[in-house]
Amino acid sequence: MDYGAFFADVQTWIGQANQAAAQYGMQSEQFWTWVADSSSAICDKYQGNRLAIKQMMMLVEWLEEVYERQNSRE
Question: What is the pLDDT of residues 5-19, one digit of tens each?
Fold first, then answer.
C-alpha cells in the first residue's frame, strides 16, 4: 500500500467531511450517507487494507463524537 497516497486521501476526506457537514448539517441523513459511502470508497480503493478500514472507522467514530457533543450542548 502506498501510505503517502493513503494519508493524502485521508487528509482530503477530512476536508470534504467538513464541507459536507457545512452543506448538509451533521444532523441530516444526507451527511451520514455521504460519510458511509465515501469512507467505504476509500476502503475499497485500498482493497480493504486493515489500516484503511481501521483509519476510516476511527474517523467515523470521531464524527459521531462531534455530533454527540454538539447535540448535548443544545
Answer: 999 999 999 999 999
Joined together, the cell numbers standing for residue 43 give 476502503
Length of the chain: 74
48: left (phi over 0), alpha (psi -120 to 50) or beta: left
**How far from chain centre, in Å, is Cα 33?**
10
First to last CA, the chain: 43
Q: How far is residue 17's CA from residue 21's CA, in Å, rounded to a whole number?
A: 6
Give residue 57's identity as a one-letter amino acid code.
M
Instruction: Please give the pLDDT value at position 13.
Output: 98
For residue 29, what is its C-alpha cell? 441523513
Number of neighbours of residue 34 by Cβ within 10 angstroms: 18
The domains of the chain are located at: 3-73
